[in-house]
Amino acid sequence: MGSLAAFLHYVFKTCGPKGGILEVIDELGLSLTQLKAIQLMVAHPASEMSLKQLGDSLEISLPAISRAVDGLVHRGLVTRTEDEEDRRIKRVHPTKDAEQLVARLIDIRFSQLGEFVDTLNTRERNKLAAALAVLAERDDIAELVTREQATASEKETASQKETR
Predict the structure, then answer these.
(1) Exposure letters 123-136 (e unless 16+ CB within 10 A, then b)
(2) Which of 7, 31, 50, 93 is the most exposed place for a label (fewest CB within 10 A)?
């Protein structure tokens, strides 16, 4: 376990301290709470959730999440609406801009990891691929991959309809 932790520490330390994900996050001017909220909403299966659900998921108070969401609404990354059945409940939903932002951050992280993988020799790459293949069989990872493939397929279908 110690060698795995050391490996992950090395990868995260060396993958993009300059020009990478941290610089992009700094340029955005968003707080970590706001970034976690956006990522959680985009990744959430239903996408829309109540303000309280979002705060509870991030383990922060309702006033704190409300302030964070105010900034996201102001930047056009989240919409906030009243629940149709109970007007006291506020529902939040990520916008397309939020989805694109999360996708951009993921792309940056993958690019940085790709740069690391490029430094590996053939033997190291094969061992890494074999280890990752085992992890990919986990139910939670397989479910995520299936969900992402379905989302990609839906986006492609929508894109094709727009071009017609």
Answers:
(1) eeeeeeeeeeeeee
(2) 7
